[in-house]
Amino acid sequence: MNKLGTIKPEKADIALLCVSIFCGLIIIGTAITSKLLSTQHGLLICEPRGIALGTVQQAEAIPFEFTIHNKEKVPFKITEVIKPCSCASIDVPVDLVIGSMSSQRFSGALRTTDRRGHYDTSVMINYEVQNFQVSHSKAKAKMLLKLPISVEVLPSIKASQEVIEISRAREVLLTLSPGTSNDFAINNIEVSDHFIKYEPLISKLGIRDTHFQVRLRLDKPTDTDAFGSGSGQELGRYWIEFKTSEEMEPSIRLPITIGTDSS
User: Fold this and answer.
1) Are residues 126 and 77 in the same domain?
2) Same structural domain for residues 32 and 126?
3) Is residue 263 part of a domain?
4) Fewer Cβ within 10 Å of end Cβ, the chain: N or C?
5) 18 φ/ψ angles, rounded to the nearest 5 degrees
6) 193 is in which domain, residue-wise?
7) pLDDT tens, position by position, 16-41
8) Backbone angles phi, psi at 183, to 5 degrees
9) CB 251 within 8 A of CB 241
10) Are residues 58 and 10 both part of a single domain?
């Protein structure tokens, strides 16, 4: 340092270089940490990326298999497995560690009893880096691996309408017919609300046949004013349910929407 208290040019250059190196290391470290903690893309990979079970009949369980790959240089621990419902089973245990640069194969099953038509769902697997020591507030943040599952289920009993719309002036004739079954019996009928009236036609309750028809209507025209109508309704709020003789589909619940009548 000279008499004026300023840093000599060569020392100033060295100081600037040190600061630049330090900042560069911070940037590189942040980038590496960001990559390891990324939740948007995930670091574990499923193969296949999704399970397509195709077209199946209603059955107790449709099996499937998949592999989880870890292509990173750090191990990951499974912290949580979230199933969409009791209809899905999967053999990925919580606290399982998938080692670096390794793969593990798993199996699962989807129960399609009571399912009808196209059905989409997903299994969610949360995981975190195992024994990864960094001074970062998100070092233990959960990362997500999503496994989509899709299936087309052929019902034991087909319905002429899967979603029924009735209104003040409109009655609906609903027909049930064999799907994968040859014949069937409807043992009982229930509805969500007292103002939804039904009248069985052709067949009687508890008698096996190849068809079952029921006429649906609203009890009173003024009832629609009390609960609203149209797209504002939550699908499934109103319904009709048939108790059947079929083991794979002991009940059929069809949603009902209340429509409006044009004046």
Assistant:
1) yes
2) no
3) no
4) C
5) -60, -45
6) 157-258
7) 555 565 555 544 444 444 344 333 33
8) -150, 175
9) yes
10) no
